[in-house]
Specification:
Number of helices: 10
Low-confidence stretches: none
Largest sheet: 9 strands, antiparallel
Structural class: alpha+beta
Radius of gyration: 22 Å
Number of domains: 2
Helix content: 10-25%
CATH superfamily of the largest domain: Electron Transport, Fmn-binding Protein, Chain A
Mean pLDDT: 92
Number of strands: 21
Strand content: 25-35%
CATH architecture of the largest domain: Roll
CATH topology of the largest domain: Pnp Oxidase, Chain A
C-alpha cells in the first residue's frame, strides 16, 4: 500500500517530483503548478502546510505502482470483481487543528473564482453503504462552504436523510483511494473495498467521533455536516476549461479540522484538464473496458485528450465482423453516459499517439458510411454545445468506425514503416 506521502517519496526517487523551497504566495501557486512538468510540492508558503500537486497522471500512477498502464487497468477491473473489506484500527493518527478553513492553503485557481475552492476533497458518507466521492467546495466562511453534489450516491444519501447528514472530507489520500473515489459504479459500492481489492489487502480505517470512518493515513480530514441550507456555488472552471453552471447547492458546516501528526500535506488539484480530467476519466475507463471485453476482442481503450478524458474515447479492436464497430460504439456509450464521441480503430493503431489516430480517421473513415449518430441523447452537463439542463443535457452522440472493411485488402490500408 502507498500513502500520499509515500507516493511523493516514490516520485521524488524517480526524478518525477520537484520541491519548491523558496517562499511563494498562495496566489502564485496555481500558475506554477500549470507550468510544472512533474509533480510538485511547495514547502514554503504562508500556511503551515506544504502544498502538493500534479500527482494523479497516467505516467505517475505507473511509477507509483510500478506497473504498466494495462496492468493497472486490469488490476482495477479485478478489484471491482473481488473487493476487499477494510479494517478498523484502534490507533488514532490525527490531531485537532484550529477550526478555521482560512488556515489551510485552499487556493483560488483562476482570477474569476468567486472564492477559494477545495477541489481534491473526497467526501465520505455512510448510509446503507459507505461511499467515497469527489465534490468541490467553495469556501464561504471559516467553517462553511457550498458544495456541488451531482445526483448520485451522496445526493441520494443526503435526500433520504432530510438533507442533513454527517460527513468527512478527506484531503491527501493513498493514490489507490484517489482513483477508487473517482469510480462511479452502477450499484452502490464501498470505494475503500475497491482500493483494498486493488492491493488485495484491507484499507485501514479510523472511526471519527461523528461516526464516520476515514482512511487512517489521510493527510487532512474536515469533519462536519451536509446541511439543508443552500448557497450559491460557481462559477467554476470545469474539465472542459469552460464555466460550469452557477447553482444553488448544499452548505457544508465544518465542525473539526483533523490532520496527521507529522507534517500534514495539502493536496491541490487544478480544475480544468490535467489531473482533474485524468481522474474523472480514470474512474470510468475500467467500467467501459469491462463491458467492451464482453462484445469484442479488445486491444486497447483510451480517453481522447481532445475529448477532455470524459466526452470522447478511442477503442482498438481485432475486428471479427464489419458490424462489430457499431456494437462497440453502443456498448461504450451505454457504459459511460457522458460519452459523446466514440472512435473505433483496428489493433495496429496506437491510441496514445494523436497523429496515428488522426491518420486512421483520415484514411479509413468515410462520413457517409462509417458514422453512427444518436440524436436527442442525454449527455454531460459539461458540454457547452449541448442543450441546457439541470443535471444532464440533451446532445447528439456519435460513433466513428475507423476500421478497415473486411471485404477489402488490408494491405492497401496499412502504413509502410520499413
Amino acid at each position: 500500500m502507498v500513502s500520499f506521502k509515500q507516493a511523493l517519496q516514490i516520485l521524488e526517487s524517480k526524478g518525477k517530483l520537484q520541491r519548491i523551497t523558496q517562499k511563494v504566495e498562495l496566489n502564485q501557486i496555481p500558475g506554477q503548478i500549470r507550468n510544472a512538468k512533474n509533480a510538485v510540492i511547495f514547502e514554503n508558503n504562508p500556511t503551515n502546510y506544504p502544498v502538493a500537486s500534479n500527482i494523479c497522471t497516467r505516467d505517475n500512477f505507473c511509477t507509483i505502482f510500478d506497473m504498466t498502464w494495462n496492468q493497472i487497468q486490469e488490476k482495477v477491473i479485478n478489484a471491482l470483481d473481488n473487493p476487499v473489506k477494510p479494517v478498523t484500527v484502534n490507533e488514532y493518527p490525527f490531531v485537532e487543528a484550529e477550526l478555521d478553513l482560512g488556515k489551510l492553503p485552499i487556493l483560488r485557481y483562476y482570477k474569476t473564482d468567486p472564492g477559494p475552492y477545495v477541489t481534491s476533497g473526497v467526501f465520505v458518507t455512510e448510509c446503507e453503504k459507505r461511499n467515497l466521492s469527489y465534490h468541490r467546495m467553495l469556501i464561504k466562511t471559516k467553517t462553511t462552504a457550498t458544495t456541488r453534489i451531482c445526483h448520485r450516491h451522496t445526493w441520494q444519501c443526503y435526500t433520504k436523510n432530510n438533507n442533513n447528514i454527517d460527513i468527512a472530507i478527506c484531503i491527501g489520500l493513498d493514490p489507490a483511494l484517489l482513483f477508487a473515489a473517482a469510480i462511479s459504479t452502477k450499484e452502490p459500492m464501498d470505494e475503500t473495498e475497491i482500493a483494498g481489492g486493488f492491493y488485495q489487502k484491507p484499507i485501514k480505517m479510523v472511526k471519527l467521533d461523528n461516526g464516520i470512518s476515514v482512511p487512517a493515513d489521510t493527510e487532512i480530514v474536515l469533519q462536519g455536516k451536509l446541511t439543508p441550507e443552500l448557497g450559491t456555488e460557481g462559477p467554476f472552471v470545469d474539465i472542459t476549461g469552460t464555466y460550469d453552471l452557477i447553482r444553488q447547492q448544499p452548505v457544508v458546516e465544518i465542525t473539526k479540522i483533523l490532520t496527521q501528526k507529522q507534517n500534514p500535506t495539502y493536496y491541490a488539484l487544478i480544475p480544468g484538464r490535467g489531473e482533474h480530467s485524468f481522474l474523472m476519466g480514470f474512474g470510468k475507463l475500467p467500467l467501459i473496458y469491462k463491458e467492451l471485453t464482453k462484445v469484442c476482442d479488445l486491444k486497447d481503450l483510451a480517453f481522447t485528450d481532445g475529448g477532455i478524458n470524459w466526452l470522447g474515447c478511442s477503442v482498438s479492436i481485432k475486428k471479427r465482423t464489419d458490424a462489430e464497430p457499431k456494437t462497440v460504439i453502443e456498448t461504450a456509450l451505454d457504459a459511460h453516459k457522458s460519452l459523446k464521441h466514440v472512435y473505433v480503430f483496428d489493433d495496429d493503431i496506437n491510441l496514445s499517439d494523436p497523429q496515428d489516430i488522426l491518420w486512421a480517421l483520415t484514411t479509413r473513415f468515410q462520413a457517409d458510411k462509417n458514422v453512427y449518430t444518436y440524436p436527442d441523447s442525454l449527455g454531460s452537463s459539461l458540454d457547452p454545445s449541448s442543450e441546457p439542463g439541470e443535471d444532464r443535457r440533451k446532445t447528439c452522440k456519435a460513433g466513428f468506425d475507423c476500421t478497415i472493411p473486411l471485404t477489402k485488402d488490408r494491405a492497401d490500408f496499412e502504413k509502410v514503416t520499413n
